[in-house]
Amino acid sequence: MASTPSNPTSRLRREAVVRAVAALLRWLQKHPTPAPEPIYLIVTLKRAPVRRFEHQLRLPHSPFPSISLVSDRLPADLPDDIDPLPSSALRSLPAATRRGLVLVDRRLRVPAGGKAAGAKRGVTLPVDLSDPAWAESAREAARRVELRVEGGTCRAVRVGHGAMAREEAVENVVAAVEAAAACVPRKWRNVRALHVKSPESTALPLYSTPGTGGEDNDGDGGMGAAKPEGTPTMEEQGRTKRRKKSSMGCN
């Protein structure tokens, strides 16, 4: 018997999220990297918004595997969940840090645009260490991600990382989907498809508009949806075609 969404206004089935997240985490475990890979929610709309669209989505758990603080004068009571880094790290952040959230002491000069050099795969956030609540503010900021649509119909939102517990990743994906569907123009009526993926993995389907079968993914940046089990890969299809041509040439 088909399950129903826990939220009456939602079209997302939690079971679909559990299956996709579990499969993605298994894939990431079989393809380890120096730092946990990010997990993205891919939102594909039927129609692009007429105007530029931005919205903050709050997640139950931080999608970053680490939080680092770049400062030359570290606070004496630096929390255990925040790693210290010298100001020189702004010039060349290590790979493990680029995938996490980097806090930058406001007393340091950060390049224009707020992005630290070498932090292309991470997010930087200026912090005021004179504020007693700076650490808690940083943790709260780490739970917020931005859904931005500037053109086209497909966008990726970071919702987790490969080292997360499955249930935490599921909670983040569900929260991100519900928040995204509630804020895009025309809401669920404008949601064409939803997928989860990591940078190198196949996109795994969570939802598709009835009638599309999850296979119509125009505008997904070439990431593609997961194929049904047993479907031949492009490489296998190519080998089959070459064998047929060879057989025809021998007759």
List key phrases describing it.
251 residues; alpha/beta; Ribulose 1,5 Bisphosphate Carboxylase/Oxygenase; four-stranded antiparallel sheet; four-stranded parallel sheet; 5 helices; globular
N- to C-terminal distance: 53 Å
| Whole-number tally of structural domains | 1
The third-level CATH topology is Ribulose 1,5 Bisphosphate Carboxylase/Oxygenase
Question: What's the tally of helices?
Answer: 5
- Report the sheet-strand fraction: 15-25%
The beta-strand count equals 10
Helicity range of the residues?
25-40%
Task: Describe what this molecule looks like in 3D.
With 251 residues, the protein is α/β, with parallel strands linked by helices. It has one domain (14-111, 120-208): Ribosomal protein L1/L10, rRNA-binding domain (Ribulose 1,5 Bisphosphate Carboxylase/Oxygenase). It has five helices and ten strands. The protein has helices at residues 14-30, 95-98, 134-142, 166-183, 234-250; strands at residues 38-45, 53-58, 67-70, 82-85, 101-105, 123-127, 144-149, 154-161, 191-197, 204-208. The strands form three sheets. The protein has a four-stranded antiparallel beta sheet with strand order 8-1-9-10, with helices on one face. A four-stranded parallel beta sheet has the order 4-3-5-6, covered by helices on one side. Strand 9 and strand 10 form a beta hairpin. Helix 1 (14-30) crosses helix 4 (166-183). The protein is globular and about 60 Å long. Residues 112-120 and 214-251 have low confidence and may be disordered.
